[in-house]
Amino acid sequence: MFDYFKLVNGMMDGETDNELFAFYSLDKLETVVNKFSDWHGIPKYSDALTTLDRPETLFLFSDYFIHLEAFAIRLDKSSILNNHVYAICGGMYQVVAVSFSAFIDLYLQDSEALII
Prior knowledge:
Helix content is 22%, strand content 25%. The chain is an alpha+beta fold and 116 residues long.
């Protein structure tokens, strides 16, 4: 993930790819708690704060279709070997990759598989 931010560092604000995926720059990363604590739109991401385990350790780095779905990676000391990537849509979530690299591989090969 470090190499990704060193080389690419996300997209410009408001920019997406042709599939409507947006990737955030390093300065736009924030935790699920910080981003969604007051989010009451559709989907209702504030519900994720009660359904996700340790949402304060999940950092948002991407979204799909203007926040229809968000992607977060777990970054904490207890998950140093497995930094799972979660697809989040309101209070629903699913682990979609075991690492950031695996997420990028899946995004490049079959981005539809990331949609829950």
